[in-house]
Design goal:
Elements (H helix, E strand, L loop, with lengths): L1 H18 L29 H15 L2
């Protein structure tokens, strides 16, 4: 209980210090990357379906057996 209170106080102090910092500025020659395709539009995202479908199959077969 006391550790939690101490951590909350330390976080409040650190937050107050961060709040007074000036806004960051980007340099004039800053090059940002393009975000690319959304995750579900990429072919590799469909690789997540195999373990998910397998887990659903195992769960369904254990529940209904």
């Amino acid at each position: 209980m006391f550790i939690t209170a101490g951590v909350l106080v330390l976080n409040a102090v650190r937050w107050a210090r961060i709040r007074v910092l000036p806004e960051s500025e980007r340099p004039a020659n800053d090059r940002t990357l393009k975000p690319g395709k959304p995750l579900l539009d990429r072919p590799a995202a469909y690789g997540l379906l195999v373990p998910a479908l397998l887990a659903i199959y195992v769960w369904f077969s254990t529940v209904h057996s």
